[in-house]
TrEMBL record, chain B:
Superkingdom in the source lineage: Bacteria
Cited PROSITE patterns: CHER
One example GO MF annotation: S-adenosylmethionine-dependent methyltransferase activity
Domain CheR-type methyltransferase: 1-283
Gene3D superfamilies: Vaccinia Virus protein VP39
Protein's name in the database: Chemotaxis protein CheR
Segment forming the signal sequence: none
Amino acid sequence: MGRVMKSCLVVDDSKVIRRVARHILETLDFTVAEAGDGREALEHCTVSTPDVVLLDWNMPVMSGIEFLRALGTTPLPRRPKVVFCTTENSAGHIRAAIDAGADEYVMKPFDRETLESKMQIMGLA
Amino acid sequence: MEMSPVAARILGTLLEERSGQQLAADRRWRIGTALGPLLRRRNIPSLDNLVAILGSRGDPRLLDEVVEALLNNETFFFRDRAAFSLLTDQALDMLARARAAERSLTIWSAACSTGQEVYSLAMSFAAQPERWAGWRIEILGTDVSRAAIAQARIGRYSQFEIQRGLPVMQMMRCFDQEGDHWRVKPSLRGRVAFTVHNLLDAPPPGRRPDVVLCRNVLLYFATEKRRIALDRIAGAIAPDGVLMLGAGETLLGQTDAFVADEELRGLYRPREGYGGAATKRVA
């Protein structure tokens, strides 16, 4: 029997970052969807809730932290894990993300080992 | 980087003589990558030139630097998470019962590289203050690399290093941010010790370790050197102690000194008559 693939929604306003993250996640056996900002990501989650959201901080329309807060008040069949993936690497930002409900935090720049490690920590890889 | 087969063989021999680690033919590509920065820093045009300088024996410090650069220092926090949990949960439970009277545990992380394994252990103990209240827990990390031990002592890790294996909550609880790096909090650094040590030499002095972790290093040793290192560990470890190897490593057919633990899969116990057999050590 084949392995059940996990799903990840990559939310980043940079197409390049989305492409890099998609490539890495696909090698880790994830199915990947993409969104360019928090609003788009929220809409995606209401239609098809992923196992995990890889979330940038600074984006137009709706930022990562705004998305995370909105996610908490949006009725969904299940809550996806949320991993911030951002250049906002200060301890203050990380603490704010955790307080808002983030499960993990990836400091950019990232590599395959980092993403794989964080997914393993959450039991997703 | 171009290199003659003779130069590759000489560099491989130097590494093995100094550390026990072998550079198998399929890993010789690492030589150029590992020594590139050293060549540039020393203004040495090629690996063949480097070998010639080493052969003249005029620069012992260069030899140290070459061996340091060739060592494989790959490691990360909570490596092989499932196996690590087996150790920190079940194996430590069992040892804690056996040491209930003296309330003391000694752990030796042999070939600890830059210290992530040692700090993972320290974090595991620190996360259970009630369980270990009143216990004396000694955690010693050793490695043949002076540079790795120097970094381990400082406990400072780059952004890439800190993100490998370490949950963000634990990072925030146990580390302070220092610019682009993260440093282990002093309270945690004070719980561990590090020293330079070669696995082929006599074990470091101190209390007999109840647990020895020797992960992902003996696989780089030739059979005979692996046996020597295991005999050294067998001579040091407590008779009812536990040896942990890397995931996928086995002692099957490698040594008579240890047997697989029947209950704790992946962990090894000294065979009766072997634990602490080689040397009598004083607490």
